[in-house]
């Protein structure tokens, strides 16, 4: 069952509809422009799925008896708690793209405990995942440390040329704004990647580092010359995108550095991991991992694992090796 | 408890001795030059561990009551079955570098079933792991597919300049032999990387591909000019190392290609993974992952996971996300 058919929820639903191991039995969205319509039409699938979008989560679940709920409504754990509570009362396992659920950080510890207790009571698992947080800047670097006898410091960089990404993504990174507008939107929380604190905490716990401070700062990339994507042109002096840096400290020592540079005109897209340890490891995914497809894929591929997982709030750290899940 | 103190077993033991979360309580080796001596001396640790190498597995285990056995005696599953049987009768979880145990292939299905039954009866887990098989050419490529909505074909390449590796490794890849000697040793099984069939089967199962045929061929790299390592010089026309290619087919289609080129003088060491799918992913570890340290690290880092795992024969596919395990 789908809960939330925004851009990410729709991408997950399109993938589920295309892959023969899965069947969408219900979909929920509170948007009046979506509820009552066929899911296939709402997600631009090009065919109908004979499932109507419902405005009422409980009714939709009761009528369709799904095996799992896919929750794609908000980045905020606090924001999705009422939905999670409803789903767990229905004893439904949940996989969600809610960034703050990927590895609930210090500020969300209380909610995480509450959620874990509810999930255990319902005898189902809850997992927050996606490409980032969920993989490129946490689970993948952690997996790479498995061949190390010693780890001193971890640096992860994700550089993305936003010219090839969808317009909402370009907006999310502030492309086209003035410097002042950018700062305002950062302050308002609308321009920012959500998940650095969660990824840093996940890596820190895996490495056994007691982090004393986590920072997460966003700065603008200012265009030096005109840069254009298909639908957006940014003049010199305006914002081309963002540069976000997260650091996990033990005392004064920066043990974990995550850097995300997403802007129109980045000369090269890539995802790199440097493990400063023994052995030293430098891994690079050339061209980077495409965010939209990857988040939807990770969510879909996690479904069988979440259904089979031990009850409770799970994270990518205690789930089995992530993998593509094939039709069988 | 250590079983087997050859080059790999000794590397694992040195790492355990250096890492404060672990303590070596017993060690077993049938070599008369090792048994009776202090483990620290046998593994060239530079200090004694006050644990004597024992020739008798059962006695050593009974006297020391270990939490887990680390088995590093042979590449062959058939070869280690009597030891595994003894360890499981003692209800000891086992982590092993036995390559054929990493993902028991078709020819070993019967032994794998038997082993799984014994482990379940003993209520402990058994895992075969290491860097290869166990990570670079199977678990890592599988993990990278988790962000894909479609996977058509997987190619993994491991290129190693053997000049920087230990002499036994250089011998294992046939460096210094004539072409005829090389072919003889390949036929005898002494020059060959063990594990391609296992890695290919692991990837195939994860992708849901019903493989109809797996090939595994070894060819020599012939030196075109003189190449030297610190302790070995190879004249032109002699063997500088090996090139091994494993292919997993579905019908006539090569779905999985593993290629290992290990020879003195390789211009660049690296580990690369190409996922031909959506999205397409090309990942490269520059400099490669050092085999000896990495196999020992992976074995040590797996210990807490194996102790906590569900009883039975486990593989890297159903273990939690691999990770460095820190002192706590």
Structure description:
The structure is a homodimer of 328-residue chains. With 328 residues, the first copy, chain A, is an alpha/beta fold. Chain A folds into two domains: 2-130 and 293-314, Rossmann fold; 139-288, Dihydrodipicolinate Reductase, domain 2 (2-Layer Sandwich), CATH 3.30.360. Helices cover 31% and strands 25% of the residues of chain A. Chain A is built from ten helices and 15 strands. Chain A has helices spanning 7-18, 39-42, 57-64, 77-89, 109-122, 139-144, 167-172, 179-188, 196-207, 291-308; strands at residues 2-3, 27-28, 53-54, 69-71, 94-96, 125-128, 150-161, 213-222, 227-228, 233-234, 239-250, 253-263, 270-278, 281-286, 312-314. In chain A, the strands form three sheets. Chain A has a seven-stranded parallel beta sheet, with helices on both faces. In chain A, helix 5 (109-122) links the parallel strand 5 (94-96) and strand 6. In chain A, helix 1 crosses helix 10 (291-308) and helix 4 (77-89) packs parallel to helix 5. The longest helix of chain A has 18 residues, at 291-308. Chain A is globular and about 55 Å long. The mean pLDDT of chain A is 95. Chains A and B meet through helix 6, strand 14 and helix 10 of A and helix 6, strand 14 and helix 10 of B. Strand 14 (281-286) of chain A pairs antiparallel with strand 14 of chain B, so a sheet runs across the interface.
Provide the fold topology:
The structure is a homodimer of 328-residue chains.
Chain A: E1 2-3, H1 7-18, E2 27-28, H2 39-42, E3 53-54, H3 57-64, E4 69-71, H4 77-89, E5 94-96, H5 109-122, E6 125-128, H6 139-144, E7 150-161, H7 167-172, H8 179-188, H9 196-207, E8 213-222, E9 227-228, E10 233-234, E11 239-250, E12 253-263, E13 270-278, E14 281-286, H10 291-308, E15 312-314
Parallel strand pairs in A: 1-2, 1-4, 2-3, 4-5, 5-6, 6-15, 7-12
Antiparallel strand pairs in A: 7-13, 8-11, 9-10, 11-12, 13-14
